Amino acid sequence: MVRVTMAGLGYSVKGKGKHNAVALLREDEGPKVLLLWLDDDEAGQLTGLFDGKGEDFPQTHDLLAGLFHSLGLNLVSVILEGRGKTASAARLMIAWGEEQGELEARPGDAVALALRLGVPIFAGEKFLTEPSSYKVNGVIN
């Protein structure tokens, strides 16, 4: 597992003018990146967290952070995983008292919660690629 940090958000142009939201996560100890494809809801949540502006009303990650706090749960880390070369699933590693456990989540939601609570994000090396042509906070080719 490699620790990654959110580096930006953008859109990929996929033929016929179709755009897909994508989060760019960069490994902490190297040049490789992970492109995390997002739906519109996930992209909206991450945009508010990443740019520091937030939203006028609570988002899903705010609700979960509040529940974790109220129930005495600590989010320890987020692990991005999946099949093939795409991170399509995530595990929330949680702890309470002497106990530990995990919950499954969508990758975008898990990253949003990790950003909200300031916990580390990890991904398998197979999901990381050498950076090619991309622009942080813009269009990713």
Question: Explain this structure to me?
Answer:
The chain has one domain: Bifunctional nuclease domain (Roll). It has helices at 40-50, 60-71, 107-117, and strands at residues 2-13, 19-27, 33-38, 74-81, 89-96, 99-105, 121-123, 139-140. It has 3 helices and 8 strands; from the N terminus they run βββααβββαββ. Helix 1 (40-50) runs parallel beside helix 3 (107-117). The protein is of the alpha+beta class and 141 residues long. It is 24% helix and 39% strand. It is globular, with a radius of gyration of 15 Å. Strands 1, 2, 3, 4, 5, 6, 7 and 8 form an 8-stranded mixed sheet that branches.
Report the biggest beta sheet as strand number plus sense, adding barrel if it closes.
Answer: 8 strands, mixed
Characterize the quaternary organization of these chains: single chain
What is the tally of helical segments? 3
Structural shape: globular
What do we call the CATH homologous superfamily? Bifunctional nuclease domain
Provide a short characterization of the protein structure:
The chain is α+β, with helices and mostly antiparallel strands and about 140 residues long. The chain contains 3 helices and 8 strands; from the N terminus they run βββααβββαββ.
